[in-house]
Amino acid sequence: MFRRILIANRGEIAVRVIRACRELGVESVAVYSDVDAGALHVSLADRTVRIGPAPPALSYLSANAVLAAARDTGAEAIHPGYGFLSEDHTFAAACAVAGVAFVGPPADVIARMGSKISARQLASQAGVSVVPGETPVDQSDDAVAAAACRLGLPALIKPSEGGGGIGIKRVRDAASLLAAIGQARREALAAFGDGTLFVERLIERGRHVEIQILADHHGQVVHLFERECSLQRRHQKIVEETPSTAVTPRLRGRMGEAASAVARAAGYRNAGTVEFLVEGSGDKALFYFLEMNTRLQVEHPVTEQTTGVDLVAAQIRIAAGEPLPWSQAQLLQRGHAIEVRLYAEDPARDDLPQAGPLLLYREPSMPGLRVDAGVAEGDEVPVYYDPMLAKLIAWGDTREDARRRAVAGLRGYPILGVRTNVPFLIGLLDHPAFVSGDIDTGFVDAERRTLVARLGGDPPPDALAVAAHAGESMLPDAPRSIVASDPWTTLRGWRG
Asked: CA–CA separation, 40 vs 420, rounded Å?
C-alpha cells in the first residue's frame, strides 16, 4: 500500500478521496489554487501544496505543477478524481515516466477509449452492439451531413473526444443539419482541441444506463451492476439511481457481461464505466454501447450505497497492485439509492452558474442520507470551476423509500447566499413520471419549462425552518466500516 497520495483535484471529489485515504491509513496531499486556499479539501488533507493562480489552465490542469507537487511531497501516487487531468493520457504517461503511480488505467487505454470512434470499434470487435452510426473519413461539413442523411434523420452529431454533452447536437431535419455540424465542430475544437465528428441514429425515448466495472492487474474483471442516468439536462446528468427501473435481472446480466467484455478487450485496469443506451424494456430490450469513461464517475456513491464497496479505496488498492478480493458471484446489491447533484445555479435563468459567499449552508442529517460535499458555510463559490456544491445520496429498502428520503433531505437543506437548483430537484423527484420510473434521456429537457414555471423565488419552506433554528454547521462525518472483516467495503450507512 502507498504511504502518501496526492489528489489532483478540488471540491467534493478531493474531500471524498481524502476520506478514503484516511480509512486506509494513507497520508493525503491536497493541491490548491489561490482561490481555494481556504477550501474544505485543503483543511482536511495531511499536507497541502499551492500549484498556481485560480484559472484551471494555470493550476489544476497544469500537469507540470501537479507532478512537481508530487515530487516535492514524496507522493507515491496521484489520484486524479474526475474532470481536470483524469482522462488526459499524456498526464498518465508522464506519471509513469516520473515513477508516480496513476490511480486509473494505463495511458494507452485512456487514449484508446477516450476516442469515442476507436472505443466504438473496440466494442464491436468484442461482440458488443453499438448505436448505428458512421464516422466519415472525409470530415468536411458536407460529408458529415451526407453521412447523417444516409443514416436517416433524426440523428445525433457527436464529437469524437470529450464528454459532458459538449458538442452533441440533435438534428431532426435537413434544413438545420449544416448549422448543427458547424456548431458541434466549433464547440469540440474549443473544448477538446479536436473537431472530428461522427453521427449516430437518434433513439427516441432511450434510457442511459451505465455499468460500473473494476479490473485489477491480475486479470480479474468484475462489474458492480448498473446505474440509471437518464435524467439529464442537455446531455449533462443531474440525477442518478440504482437499480434502474428499466433493467430486469436477465438484462442486467447481459449488460454486465457486455461491459466486462469491453473492459477485457481494452486491457482495462482500475475503475471504469461502460455506458449504454437502452431501447425498450424487459428481458428483450436492446442495448447499445455508447462510450467508456476511464475514471471514477460523479455518481459512484449510489453503487457504493447498494453494494457496500468503497470504490475509491478499491481504486487505490488496485493501483497498489492488490487483487480484487471477490468474484462476480460474491457481489450483491441491497436496496435502492438515488443521487442528486446540488449546483450553485439559477434554473429560472437557463441554469446560469452562481458565484458568491455561502452565507448559510447546513447539510441534512437523517438515517439513509449521505452528503458528499466540497464546501462549508462561509466559503466563497468561485467563478472559475464547475458550480457543483455537493451530492445528496438517499438509500432505502425500496425505490420509493429512497425517493422520499431524497426529497426530505432536499427540503431540509438550507443554502443561502447563492441560488441553487434544490427547488428544481425537488420538483423533479416529485414528478409523477419519475415516481413511476417512466423516464428517458429527453425527459428533463421536455419537462423543463413546466418544472421551472413551478419554482418559487425562495428556498423550500422546510429549509427555511431549518435555517431559522440551525445550530452549528454539520459537516459530513467520516465514512464508517460496515463489514469490519472486509477492508474493501466501508461506506454503506455513511449517514445512517
From this structure: 19
| Domain finish residue from 201, 217, 250 | 201
Prediction pTM value: 0.89
Q: What single string gives the DSSP state of each residue in 68-84?
A: HHHHHHT-SEEE--SST
Q: Which of 273, 305, 289 is nearest to 131 (CA)?
A: 289
Tell me what pLDDT residue 285 has: 95
Which one-letter amino acid corresponds to residue 272? G
Q: Is the dihedral of CA 289, 291, 295, 296 positive or negative?
A: negative
pLDDT tens for each residue of 151-171: 999 999 999 987 778 999 999
Q: What is the DSSP string of 214-229?
A: EE-TTS-EEEEEEEEE
Are 239 and 275 members of one domain? yes
Query: Which cell numbers hold the place of 102?
Result: 496513476
The pLDDT, as a whole number, for residue 197 is 96
Q: How many CA atoms lie within 13 A of 431 on its CB side?
A: 21
Q: What is the CATH number of the domain that holds 27?
A: 3.40.50.20
User: 402-437: per-residue pLDDT in tens?
Assistant: 999 999 999 999 999 999 999 999 999 999 999 999
Q: What is the per-residue pLDDT across 279-302, written as a single tens digit (0 to 9) for each?
A: 998 899 999 999 999 999 999 999
Contact (Cβ atoms closer than 8 angstroms) between residue 215 and residue 209: no
Question: Strand pairing of 155-159 and 169-171?
Answer: antiparallel
* Nearest in space to 214 (alpha carbons), one of 112, 306, 125, 303: 303
**How far apart, in whole angstroms, are the C-alpha atoms of residue 375 and residue 433?**
32
Burial of 391: CB neighbours in 10 Å, binned 0-12, 13-18, 19+: buried
CB-CB contact of 18 with 47 (8 Å): no
Domains held by the chain: number? 3
Looking at the structure, tell me whether residues 45 and 97 fall in a common domain: yes
Query: What would the pLDDT profile of 451-466 be if each residue is shown by its tens digit?
Result: 999 886 556 656 666 6
CA angle 368, 374, 378 (to 5 degrees): 110
> Are the C-beta atoms of residues 309 and 315 closer than 8 Å to each other?
no
What is the rounded CA–CA span in Å between residue 137 and residue 360? 54
Q: How far apart are CA 130 and CA 160, in angstroms?
A: 15
| Domain coverage including residue 99 | 4-103
- Percentage of the chain with pLDDT > 90? 87
Nearest to 491 by CA among 391, 393, 402, 364: 393
Q: Is the peptide bond before 243 cis (omega within 30 degrees of 0)?
A: yes
How confident is the model at residue 491, as a pLDDT?
A: 40
pLDDT at 396 over 90: yes
Cell 417512466 -> residue: 438
CB 440 within 8 A of CB 203: no
DSSP secondary structure letter of residue 338: E
Q: Are residues 65 and 164 in the same domain?
A: no
